[in-house]
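ok here's Muramoyltetrapeptide carboxypeptidase, seq below lol
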Amino acid sequence: MSKTESKGRAKRADNCPSHIHPTPADYRGIYMISPSGAVREPAALALACERLGGMGFRTAVDRTALAVDQRFAGTDAQRAAAFTRAIKQKLPIVMATRGGYGLSRLLHLLDWQAIADSGKRFVGHSDFTAFNLALLAQTGAVSYTGPCACADFGGRKLDALTPDLFAETMRGELEILSFEAPGADAVDCRGVLWGGNLAIVASLVGTPYLPKVRGGILVLEDVGEHPYRVERMLTQLLHAGILARQKAIVLGRFTDYKLAPHDQGYDMDAVVAWLRGVVKVPVVTGLPYGHVPTKATLPIGAKVGLATEDGMAYLVLHEHHHDHGQDHGHAQDHAAHGHCDACGHDHGPSHAPGEDHAH
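and the structure came out like this:
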């Protein structure tokens, strides 16, 4: 797997507009809230604030971020009130301390239009998918699926690329995320990026909090779900007509499950093969996203481009005007170049080697 971006390689394509939040004059401020599970190790949150501070981010922690009510980070009312405080305070980024479970209980309690109007950048993953998709469904606003404070910045070891991908996305510098995608179906398209944790996506089917995206690029990941459960949730999306309406399905990591002897070869590769057999939508694997150390920060609700070529996939997240020859990236250069209709760019398979080569 690879996990970096190539940037500033060609002119901006005027027919590929960006729908991502403009970069504020001061993006370096993060307000921490706990909308789902209780923080198990307060020291991890303190360490996350310290590390983010070392990256140049000012941090503030909501007053109920460490609250505990059963398995939750406070009562439903407390966790909903944290969103109200988050949109009133001055820091531009709002990050979930962790995922878990509990955000689905809040969806009918939140003022979605006020959240969208605040202009804050909300970031989280896993259970935070419920927020990402509900905000998109209710208002059309963009939010981000990416790192959480405790797991990604407060762990024993800080991943080498996740912090950079997060910071560059917040600065509006991450233009093209390239990653190894051996065996990926051929695709060259544009569409609204949406999705997240598969279990949460499936749980929102039939509710007003699942966006009705046609011609989108659907990204999915999950953790602790046996392949048959992954297939069962994909089947739900299939029979609901959701998969057939997309331009592409992009799979991140499906981790921490245990196969049984009677599976007899039925694994995630078998599920992907089944998926390709039942949908006429291109399927791309290898996205650096999920419950893994290295994860990209992705704009849910933004219009993006996607192309595959020679075992590589290119997710076009953001574009800038550049002076000729200017290079703001740190991707490695390779000799081969091709033209990507998804973004109008000429580029090669520029990426850095990753730690996780599983697909």
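fwiw Residues 4-18+175-347 form a domain with the Glucose Oxidase; domain 1 fold (CATH 3.50.30.60). kinda neat tbh
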